[in-house]
Amino acid sequence: MSDKLKQCREQIDALDEALLKIVNQRAALAQQIGHLKEGGVVLRPEREAQVLRRLQDANQGPLSNVAIAALFTEVMSQCRALEAPLSVAYLGPEGTFTEAAALKRFGSAVQGVSCATIDDVFRAVESGEVQYGVVPVENSTEGAIGRTLDLLLQSTLQVCGEVMLPIHQCLLAQQCDVSQIQSVYSHPQSLGQCQGWLNVNLPAAARIPVSSNAEAARLAAGHVNCAAIAGAQAAGHFGLNVCVENIEDDARNTTRFLVLGKQQVAASGEDKTSMVLSATNRPGAVHDLLASLAKYDVSMTKFESRPSRSGLWEYVFYVDIEGHQTDEKVVLALAELKQSAAFMKILGSYPLAV
Ligand SMILES: O=C(O)C(=O)C[C@]1(C(=O)O)C=C[C@@H](O)C=C1
């Protein structure tokens, strides 16, 4: 070993000891805070977002802000676990992007509960079996996840947070001779995100939609001439090879997930509010809804219409705005909006994804 290498490792050892002491001091403070909360809710999304943003603002590298967020999310996850255990349901099975989103938001010190359907995630949170749930809500290439939107309308749960996860799809198979692949399994959303790649590279292969990407990988593991489209993490779970990486048609392909819970999250300073609206049946009604937002300078980040399921050709609108429902201009805009809407339900205010 060269002298320089030895020296660097000695310095790392010394720093690790200092880090060890400091993270344990931090953990002890979190424990104290836990006692002060006395039966209160342990997870404080607004505080966690503020901690991450402050550190990202102060970060001078060489670690990236993405790395800093991942590192300190894990630190907070371990500290939080000393205050109280936390359970989180997600749309499973293990190895799906939703599991990755839950991990990204909550870190590893939580009890993850895999659910077979989006409905089951809602039920698990509603019944109190778990404290939080994570479900996909929209993808940048394929659009809304209708089932999540429909359940948000019916449910009493609050949206407590959002997670943005860059989605990189891979072709997984037992053998990587692409000319031998006859069928490709995947979730319909993932097949949609890769249709351009499939048209060019596997035009003759059957595209078989299944319930999840993990299920696709499980099926591909049983047939030598079949492949799955899934995240690279699924390859390890099912003993498959990653034959081709990044086969999504848009390199910026991102899925947005929602964190569901029962708490009203306090303002963090950079927040979003989600709601569902319906307009009265008269000319200009939708315009009036949006005019209330414009009047108070509230930006809209999403507008999505869905059948209302209560009348033929009737629609509800899913709207996200910038700001917390307790912010002054949001309070004014929402009060006016409520006057012109036939129906209005606030789904929750929560910190912007860090
Ligand atoms: O500040 C708190 O309320 C804490 O419990 C500490 C802490 C942290 O580790 O920083 C942990 C859990 C909360 O969700 C927020 C922050």
Describe the structure.
With 354 residues, this protein is an alpha/beta fold. The chain has four domains: 19-32 and 44-83; 85-166 and 253-263, D-Maltodextrin-Binding Protein, domain 2 (3-Layer(aba) Sandwich), CATH 3.40.190; 170-244, D-Maltodextrin-Binding Protein, domain 2 (3-Layer(aba) Sandwich), CATH 3.40.190.10; 267-351, Alpha-Beta Plaits (2-Layer Sandwich). Helix content is 42%, strand content 27%. The protein has helices spanning 3-37, 45-58, 65-83, 97-106, 118-126, 146-154, 188-193, 195-201, 213-220, 232-238, 285-295, 328-340; strands spanning 87-91, 111-115, 132-139, 143-144, 158-166, 170-173, 183-186, 206-209, 226-230, 241-244, 254-261, 271-279, 300-307, 315-322, 341-351. Strands 1, 2, 3, 4, 5 and 11 form a six-stranded mixed β-sheet that branches. A hairpin with a 3-residue loop joins strand 3 (132-139) and strand 4. Helix 2 runs antiparallel to helix 3 (65-83). It starts with a helix and ends with a strand. The mean pLDDT is 95. Bound molecules: prephenic acid. Prephenic acid binds at residues 30, 33, 43-44, 47-48, 51, 76, 79-80, 83. It comes from Gallionella capsiferriformans (strain ES-2) (Gallionella ferruginea capsiferriformans (strain ES-2)). Pathway: Metabolic intermediate biosynthesis; prephenate biosynthesis; prephenate from chorismate: step 1/1; Amino-acid biosynthesis; L-phenylalanine biosynthesis; phenylpyruvate from prephenate: step 1/1. Residues 274-351 form the ACT domain. Catalyzes the Claisen rearrangement of chorismate to prephenate and the decarboxylation/dehydration of prephenate to phenylpyruvate.
